[in-house]
């Protein structure tokens, strides 16, 4: 009964989101697309942080590498074929994840965080300091790719509404894939590694292989988000691989809550809306020119008030209600 109710609510929510472009302006359509892309990006990191217990500060490398790959191999005239461009970009991100993950995963804790950051910065400077990606100016993608077989176009995402629905479909597929993955034996093994890796090794599990597989999958999913970001703006620059981007998506996961998968989506939506609000002169006036300061203070306050993230609010509320007050304790003592 509870499952069918949740399924009905989820279906209603998806339908509502799909209908937003019917009544919204181009600005709000673009904003919702951005939130969906970052939600997908945050979901990919959630597999590592919430699913496996691996806190990475270099996740933007996969995001940026896939974005650059799809842009670099797109034809300069005419729309490219997404049947080739999307898998190529995902594979590029997964290859980088496999190579770097094989080295990063030999470390733990703060050392793992710093090594992932170092590899991400290496990728950043490859595109920043060479002509491969146009240097600091970045490069443009002049046409949105098409899904086609030969000369037959199966899906054209050049219109804003088509791209909106396409992004929503990929977000739902990613969420469904991760939900099934975490309920599988593989997901149970990842949860065991997060809880107690030594016990899992003692039980005969090759924890390094499981963590590497999760790292590669997360890299591929982060690559999908990078492709969507590149196609959305038609432009990429090295900042997509910068450590600030990795920190931003990590904040999304922490703000939403590292427990349930949908926490990453909640965190991505909340952080994107906060950014937009603090940059809005209509809301904050001249203070908006210093939005980094106010945004940072707001994040510090939210993390302090909500240690379990936004998804932990119901548990926090129930814990406070069930906690006995001083007066009730005194009455019970008499």
From TrEMBL:
Keywords in UniProt for this one? Cell membrane, Membrane, Transmembrane, Transmembrane helix
Q: Where in the cell is it found?
A: Cell membrane
Query: What is this protein identified as?
Result: Amino acid/amide ABC transporter membrane protein 2 (HAAT family)
Locate the transmembrane regions by residue number. 82-103, 110-127, 161-181, 208-229, 249-271, 283-306
| Recorded GO CC terms | plasma membrane
Pfam families from the UniProt entry: BPD_transp_2
Q: How does it sit in the membrane?
A: Multi-pass membrane protein
Q: Tell me what organism the protein belongs to.
A: Eoetvoesiella caeni
**Molecular-function GO terms, alphabetical:** branched-chain amino acid transmembrane transporter activity
């Amino acid at each position: 009964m509870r499952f069918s109710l949740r399924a009905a609510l989820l279906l209603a929510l998806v339908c509502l989101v799909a209908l937003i472009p019917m009544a919204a302006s181009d600005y709000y359509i673009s904003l919702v697309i951005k939130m969906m892309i970052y939600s997908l990006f945050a979901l990919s990191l959630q597999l590592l942080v919430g699913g496996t217990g691996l806190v990475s500060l270099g996740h933007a490398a996969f995001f940026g590498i896939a974005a650059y790959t799809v842009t670099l191999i797109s034809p300069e005239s005419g729309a490219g074929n997404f049947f080739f461009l999307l898998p190529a970009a995902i594979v590029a991100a997964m290859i980088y994840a496999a190579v770097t993950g094989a080295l990063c995963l030999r470390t733990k804790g703060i050392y793992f965080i710093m090594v992932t950051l170092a590899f991400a910065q290496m990728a950043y400077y490859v595109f920043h300091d060479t002509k491969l990606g146009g240097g600091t100016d970045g490069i443009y993608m002049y046409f949105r790719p098409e899904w086609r077989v030969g000369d037959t176009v199966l899906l054209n995402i050049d219109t804003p509404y088509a791209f909106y629905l396409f992004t929503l479909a990929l977000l739902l597929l990613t969420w469904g894939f991760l939900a099934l993955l975490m309920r599988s034996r593989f997901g149970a093994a990842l949860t065991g590694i997060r809880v107690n890796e030594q016990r899992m090794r003692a039980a005969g599990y090759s924890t390094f292989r499981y963590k590497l597989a999760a790292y590669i999958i997360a890299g591929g999913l982060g690559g999908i988000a990078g492709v969507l970001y590149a196609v959305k703006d038609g432009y990429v620059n090295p900042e997509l691989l910068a450590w600030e981007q990795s920190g931003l998506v990590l904040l999304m996961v922490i703000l939403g809550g590292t427990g349930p998968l949908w926490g990453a989506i909640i965190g991505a939506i909340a952080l994107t809306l906060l950014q937009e609000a603090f940059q809005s002169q209509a809301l904050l006036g001249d203070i908006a020119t210093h939005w980094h300061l106010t945004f940072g203070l707001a994040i510090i306050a939210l993390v302090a008030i909500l240690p379990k993230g936004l998804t932990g609010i119901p548990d926090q509320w129930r814990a406070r209600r069930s906690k006995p007050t001083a007066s009730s304790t005194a009455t019970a003592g008499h």
